[in-house]
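Exercise (ungraded).
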Amino acid sequence: MAVVRDIMAPFDLLQPSTAAEAQRLLARYGADAWVLAGGMDSFDWLKDRIKKPAVVVDLSGVTELRGIRPWNGGLEIGAMTTLAEVANHPGVQKNFSLLADAVRHVASPQIRNQATLGGNVSQDVRCWYYRAGWPCYRAAGETCFADTPVGRNREHAIFGADRCVAVHPSDSAPALIALGAQFVLRTASGERVIEAEDYFVGPNREITRINLLQPGDLLASIRIPSDFAGARFYFEKVRDRNVWDFPLLNVASAMRVSGGVIQSVRLAVNAAAPTPLRLRRVEAAVAGKPPDASTGAMAGELAVQGAVPLQFNAFKIPLMRNLVKRAIGGVEKAVWA
Amino acid sequence: MVQLKLTINGFGREVLVQAHETLLFTLRERLALTGTKPGCEQGACGSCTVLLDGRPVLACLTASVRCGGKDIVTIEGVEQNGELHPVQRQLVAKGAIQCGYCTPGIVMTALAFLRENRRPGENDIRAALAGNVCRCTGYAKIVEAVRAAAEEMAR
């Protein structure tokens, strides 16, 4: 081992046992406090000493933030519930297998035993320039190191870039958007419930943030309404290595089909832009049409309209076109001549 | 420093740890249990896998202060009365060990898997071991060894 990465810089650890106490601590320490959920993203930052918080608020002892309970015919999942718990939950598997499928594609089995659903949707971008502590736009600097003729940007955005070209890395986020999930935030002014897609903040709005959480706020739970319970789902993730890797692109769709045509559909992709993208134009265009190959092909073409590739990521355009095509029109059987 | 009481390999232990310390550090540097290997130290390789309340987790991404009252099993706790566990024995028998650095992590992952899967197929074994990287042997012999261990344990 050339470099010992296992040693973090010291911090003060606070371990609240209730959400109210956690909120009080987060309010008191504000921007000095780091919220520790599963630790999978946090320890990376802390070990590399790119982020050096004075105070870490560990949520692992807050039992009310854990577990999956029935909610309004759907489910409410505590933000600190692990991805393995989500994937193995009978209610999730029975009615919302899209989410079980998505979280099973996250990282590795060991990581899914500790990573939390709240952490998965709240994790930071993985752009290596940013993660290595370079003074880029997202780090409140004045340049982007990835968006240059020689920048390493194969994994970066084809949509929504605004100075920063990093993509959102979550696999569960597009599934939650497709299911019409709501995120329950606890803020200083009380509880706030927002649509999944509105949780994420792109660089055009605020470049140093990735979601709505302000210092002092807490993501408490994620509610999945019954709208798409047991619907027709599709999830696919493409990555370089079939384990551990973040997505080069993923797609999630939830669809109600009746009388041979699409009654309602929600469709989202991630790793295409700095936030997960809900493809509303495609949803509107395929409604009322049969979920077949030609509708799929049309959906794929429409999905990639307006894509702007960087130097090394143009492959993401046909990739996204094909993933959307499959999500809407189904997967053609491979033919080996 | 925080005083922790935990169970390691069946023995109750008390240990003083720092708030910013990983379980990997505590095991190796404070308890001299160096069988758990540091690899990438960022959650990518699986060589530091231990069982935390029966589930395989990465010691390099586990805060020690979260382990109070928990039951931890490391590679040192796998053999019984000087006898290797069938998983260990089969890894040796099938030539699934070369440098051996990844082996403790693979044994821990396989143990937890075989506890819940008595008759696993090859794809199940591959999926279960997906989080453990080996740089020497290739994975065929490792998968073969885990399957042979399952058969041995079912007898």
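Further reading is listed at the end of the chapter. For now, observe: The two ends of chain A are 48 Å apart (CA to CA). The domain at 237-329 of chain A is CATH 3.30.390.50 (Enolase-like; domain 1).
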